[in-house]
Amino acid sequence: MKLTLKIWRQKNADAKGKFITYDFDAASPDMSFLEMLDALNTKLIKERTDPVAFDHDCREGICGSCGIYINGHPHGPGKKAITTCHLSMREFKDGDTVYVEPWRAKAFPVVKDLIVDRTAFDKIQIAGGFISTNVGSAPDSHAIPVEKSKADEAFDSAICIGCGACVAACKNASAMLFVSAKISQFALLPQGRIEAKERVQTMVKKMDELGFGNCSNTGACEAECPKEISLVNIARMNREFYWAKIQ
Amino acid sequence: MGKFFGSSVTKKFVMAVAGLFIILFLMVHLGINFFLLIDDPVPFNSAAHFMATNIIVKVFEVVLMAGFLIHMIWGVVLQIQNWVARPKRYKRTSSSQTSFFSKYMIYLGIIIAVFLFIHFMNFYFVKLGLVEGDHENFHLMANNLFHLPLYVVIYLVSFLFLAFHLHHAFQSAFQTLGLNHNKYTPVIKGIGLIYSIIVPLGFSIIPIVIYFFK
Questions:
Q1: Domain range for residue A87?
Q2: Would you call A239 and B96 a contact, using CB atoms and an 8 Å cutoff?
């Protein structure tokens, strides 16, 4: 496959980045997108130029490390509910021009090339994304009866991998899908209810402080989320927030 | 209290409540406007007189005006915050599966606000005595305006944009209020779609009928 790659290159957080065009003919439809970038980097290293920096870890779609904005989509075009590491080069045609950009948000500053600093998500989690009680090992937890439907809903929220695609997809760079998933996974369970009131307030406050935008219920986050986190979570977060404030 | 209104969630709450109040008011306004289709000016002028003098309506008028102002000011504040949240735009963008008109709410809102100003200059400010005009015969004033081609075109275009605005606004307000349910949200979306077509269409039919047939 021959591709024209237009990749965002930025030396460091303070540097002014720009798109560099690479005519790359060593891509294969059998590669994943990250493998294609690996191949490009091998070529760049052989040419004694700086390879493209990008985040990756498990390459199994569960760690939330990778995240690149490709041809107008977080994690790339084509199949729904996949991370960048699961994006296949079959989604592209020979001769395609591919725009490769980092997540764009004030709260996610670019560190280098395609790597952004997602510490903001950690800060939101630290603000309240936990329970303070020691629930013991798994069998002890199961001693508390949880309605199956609630457990399923909580699990659906808990599968958020915190990759930041919701922020990247949102026209307002809002983090509400992420925050609401992290709030929901606790709010739905008895163990999480104890601190629910404080949690929703501290996490929303931290989210606002960090400079994320406001949700306008557009739904791009839900459409692009690799774990298909639903907008229902945002409505639940809103309810939790109002309830906490009027109590 | 300041903190309550300061958060992103509560700003949206205020936007949604103000918006829903305006949505309710639009139905009342449309009901009165249908009297314009009657040649006899008495029913319409009586309704307008009632709306201008009744003490309960006057209280609601204050709430409505506050609603308009809050909806507009908060809308602009939220939009500026949203622009600031993404200082660098993407080079290549694509559309996701989204509520299409939500992307243009601020622009649609600005167009509607401009129309609202024209509308206020023609009627509401006349009623308040800020602009000259016969506030006891709005039927005649409306009929005169609806015989001006340019005014009719501006009116119809404004209501088309209002329809687009309402299409997203209706269901969005419920989502913001935390009312999202697997069973009922599709119903809310359906009602929102019907409302966003029927109400602007109702407003639009009146100038068309008056211009061509009266």
A1: 3-112
A2: no
